[in-house]
Amino acid sequence: MNHYVISISREFGSGGRLIGKRLAARLGVPCYDRTLIQKTAEKSGLSPDFIARAEERARSRFHLSIAPIGINSPTFAHQSVPVSHQAFFAQAEVIRELADEGPCVIVGRCSDYILGPRPDCLKVFIHADLASRVERCVEEYHIPADDMERRVLQMDRGRGNYYNYYTGHTWGDMRQYDLTLDSGKIGVEGAVELIVTLAQARAVRDRLPG
Amino acid sequence: MNHYVISISREFGSGGRLIGKRLAARLGVPCYDRTLIQKTAEKSGLSPDFIARAEERARSRFHLSIAPIGINSPTFAHQSVPVSHQAFFAQAEVIRELADEGPCVIVGRCSDYILGPRPDCLKVFIHADLASRVERCVEEYHIPADDMERRVLQMDRGRGNYYNYYTGHTWGDMRQYDLTLDSGKIGVEGAVELIVTLAQARAVRDRLPG
Questions:
Q1: Which CATH number fits domain A5-205: 3.30.1330.60, 3.40.50.300, 2.10.109.10, 3.40.50.2020?
Q2: ipTM for the assembly
Q3: Could you tell me the pTM of the whole model?
Q4: Residue B202: how many other CB atoms lie within 10 Å
């Protein structure tokens, strides 16, 4: 019943990864999140460890405001990008190939921007209030709540820096998404339900079989 | 089946008013939009014409950046607000009273912010790409397309100024909403379907009968 490549972007601790997994199971399609690192390694010859570290570095390095490179923009020149970013570009290539293979769910990794030009891409952003995100993280990572708030905000900053740099867009600008939702208000199952409804509504509009 | 007061905010030309009407019909509850002007007039003794003009003035006057007053904020003092804003305050009062009467749909008029503190308020924002909003407006208002783009953007600016001034929040910041959606991608019926799903998901979470 799913004809789409569904990209899920999310605030840290909003349950986005779990929502992606449940959604993919419900739709009977694969879900890619951190597994993309292994796939990127296989494709590029870079080690999984190098790719993971490159991602971490990119998030923290871009705390300062740097002119975004916007990899989909007409003026973007691949050769002008530092070698340190090859992990990102290899991953973008893997994301495009997976989308070509058929319907799936992809969590994070600027996939909304990388796949944005595809008409079969549905773009979702999941957020939640800070308190419920901290609560989810404390349960999941067993870290004291008082330090968790700082870490949640730090992770968000990192994701925003990474996204803004590579896309030239603003992380969390609702106009970039088909749907944004507050998982703190409706929970994981409610979020899955909403994204399934989005896919159904698009299928009706695109006149695809249900 | 609906237990909620549903507030719909929208970009100009995104079909938000029509979505509100269809949604209310589907849920069997009243829908309030420009009809609020008449109700505010009855309650306040101000003429409907005065209220409509006050709204227009507020939108255009706030093109310049003015410190927001944030009527729900702890530091807000009613008596410090100019007399020219009494139309807004009378309308806010009417919106609160209508919400007290029971489930309904309210379109625009900062209703998401005015009713935000209520646990039974669902907040939705509807946007769409500029091209499809211009197309909708040309069909609806029979104005040439070339001038329509400028007018659509001008109307959005006015709504943003009005909202930001009275609420102290940023118009269109997805974190203020339970759900935001792109009506250009799924159409009016798809949008109604998504908001109904939101209400159902919240009812499940709030353990209310379906």
A1: 3.40.50.300
A2: 0.90
A3: 0.91
A4: 21
